[in-house]
Amino acid sequence: MYLIVVAPLIRGSLKLGNLTYFSRSAIPPGSVVPIQLRKRRARGLVLSVSPLKDSKSLVKTSSFALRKIDDSKLPTVLLPEFLRMTERMAEYFVTEPGTILSALTFAQSLNEGRTLPTKQKATTAPDTTILQAEESERLTVYKNIVRESFARDSSTLIVAPTIADVERIYAALSHGIQTRVFMLSSDLSAAALKNAWGRILASPRAVLVVGTPPALSLPRHFDTIVIEREAAPAWRGREAPHIDYRRAAELLAHETNAACILADFPVRVESRARIEFGEVDEHYRPQARPLSLARVSIVDPRETDVQKKDKRTFAPLSPASRAAIDDALKAREHVAIIASRRGLSSLTICNSCGTLVADAAGMPMTLMHSEAGNVFISRRTGEVRDAAISCTTCGGWDLVTLGVGVERVQDYVTKMYPGVATFSVTADTAPTHRIAKKIVTRLAHASPAIVVGTERMLPYLTTCHTSVALVDPLLGGSSWRADERALLLLA
Fold it and tell me: Which residue, 5, 226, 300, 381, could crosslink 48 as a Cys pair with Cβ 3.0–4.6 Å?
């Protein structure tokens, strides 16, 4: 009999900590086994195993009875290097390995009873480089890397922050090598993911894998790991402990002696600083400015605001933007209008005393449309208030909205162009990848058409005329990355 220490692979494992079970056989560390948590079944990662006879006194004096692990069928065994990476990630983000593993694994893949491939891990020296170039140039570099890797019989992994990025890169790189290129994402069905997972592990030849962060758990060694769009905000998890998947990919590359490439245009300021400090090298001479020949215009909307008594009437789109949109619609083309905030307005203040409409925690509430009318919603607490409220400080009714949200821009566009198909892509209207694809498909079949959205819609757009409704909210964010985020979105 053996004593097995297991990390549960569930959200919130930080509260549970590591759990102890017993087994008839010595289950190797790294095995993913079925465990019983109170009245429900879950999966757990085996962290350590020891003979039960060495801990008899501890077991006898414990306040709980040990449960048995079913060792009749052991699912996937993860790479030892991957397990060391999760331990370092857990230490860095002050959490349990189970929390890291639940975020870095596909649930379907953990049901596979497969052993580790026999191919030896990469022998190249650990090397991290920065690739600052536009997407078309990056794709050319990736094709060269894959071609060279296949010539050396070595595999390549490209990790992207969103499913839309994965699908786009897969479509661009799979021409001519379809049998050796695989895509891994949560958008695949359980059967499709199981099939791709098995084919990757069974392939005797080098492969190219394009996937979201859970693809890092694939138990196969790669000579090159590429972190695509490394400056994208989507790399950081939205749920606690808000882990950074870029760090996981880079740590895994270090553990497996794989070359790591951080690619984007532009890259993060800390990535540039690492070059200046000599920590990393440039993959090749960085691109300093966009190569696109598209015409870019900057308009000051204050010059065209209409004066109404002692107040200015602000329009979400300037006359220059409307003129450009008119020309595009006459040519039956698509127009994308970007707003940095959801809802009608991100801030509402009292015009008499300056009090901000905020939730119980003091955070600003967003004015949004709803079936019952306009309401104030707190993004942090979920609190909802009717829009017909007075100031909590002076009791005044003169509440003024500040900022331009997507819904306000969409209302304005609908009134200005009543006969044109209008779509919206935000985290509210397109919460999942499939819904966003459906909206973009409808957009593609409409001509002319206008799509209004936040940064959420950018990975799904192709060729279209683009207008940024207002740049000020991008530059006025509370994050120290506000300027960097604005530059990245505009690029």
Answer: 5
